[in-house]
Design a protein that fits this description.
alpha/beta; 6-stranded parallel beta sheet
Length: about 325
């Protein structure tokens, strides 16, 4: 079957390790289901895999891709929950959880096999392309907002780095849930786009906000950390799920954190029940993932290049 896969690890030039071509179709195994992939979306996790983060040479070649929607062996339209081993189903209770492609072949292929427990029905209101955007970036944003930040309608939230998949999802979900969402971006066009998607106002990174916020959603890391901490009201919560600009800020702002009793919460992905709630929220509310572009699988390299260059707003989707 045709697939996009990591053939080698290159930490400095990750796209040098990306290959497109034939790979073996998945074999049947007890407790697992094979899905005919209709759409799969790119995540920065795929670039990190090509750099060898979470993926060792001994696991190569590895078909990339965590997110997908497709049709199972019985003709049901399904969405994949990308965390394998979260429940023990299909792998056994002793295997630690992992993201698809850290141990098992991924979704950038004509077929993928996952534990049957990891499949959820695709709402009829969502296209395959829309549903394929949800299991990683949008689920991460959902968990950051509603589980870890624990915000409520009327609260104020700052989303750093508008344009990325998680940040874009947070703007749309937060606005739809009745939050006052502020956003930042270095790019003026992305700031305008954030406001079109529901952000109350968008600013350059580091700008003073008109009010202190209840929560900050941080995926940028070192470049925006100090601004994130300073933007919180006393008792506020900073939720971090990534650090695209680096993990080591020049100033940790520890005095402000303890004096104002701020909470710093790490957040990674989400669980199956949260994905089910996210799917229900999108189908009932009319909220839809923001898609930057849709490409056929044989043009996957274009999608990877666009994501690596940061020239996108929303998700890049590959169709089979």
């Amino acid at each position: 079957m045709f697939a996009a896969y990591a053939a080698r690890i290159d930490r400095d030039q990750p796209l040098n390790g990306l290959e497109l071509g034939d790979r073996p179709a998945p074999s049947a195994r007890p407790g697992w289901t094979t899905v005919n992939v209709r759409a799969a979306s790119l995540n920065h996790h795929d670039l990190w895999s090509l750099r060898g983060v979470g993926l060792g040479e001994e696991s190569l070649p590895m078909i990339l891709g965590c997110d997908a929607a497709g049709v199972d062996e019985d003709g049901n339209e399904v969405v994949l929950h990308s965390v394998i081993g979260q429940s023990g189903h299909g792998v056994g209770p002793k295997e630690p959880r992992s993201l698809l492609t850290e141990r098992y072949q991924g979704t950038f292929a004509e077929q993928v096999t996952v534990p049957t427990w990891n499949l959820l029905p695709k709402p009829k209101e969502l296209s395959f392309e829309e549903a394929a955007c949800l299991p990683t970036a949008w689920l991460t944003a959902y968990r950051m907002l509603f589980t870890n930040a624990n915000v409520r309608p009327g609260d104020a939230v700052l989303v750093q780095g508008a344009g990325g998949g998680v940040a874009t999802a947070a703007i749309v979900l937060g606005s739809a849930a009745g939050l006052r969402v502020y956003a930042t971006s270095r790019d003026e066009a992305k700031r305008r786009r954030a406001e079109e998607l529901g952000a109350y106002e968008a600013y350059e990174p580091g700008a003073r906000l008109p009010q202190r916020v209840d929560a900050v959603l941080e995926t940028v890391g070192a470049a925006t950390w100090s601004h994130s901490v300073k933007s919180l009201k006393p008792g506020g919560t900073l939720v971090i799920s990534g650090a695209t600009s680096g993990p080591n800020p020049k100033t940790a702002e520890l005095n402000r954190i303890f004096f104002l009793e701020l909470k710093v919460v790490g957040s990674t992905m989400g669980d199956k029940d949260e994905l089910r709630s996210l799917l229900d929220f999108c189908s009932a509310s009319g909220v839809r993932p923001v898609i930057d572009s849709v490409l056929p699988l044989d043009r996957a390299r274009e999608g990877f290049e666009k994501m690596a260059g940061g020239d996108l707003f929303g998700k890049i989707v590959l169709t089979v």
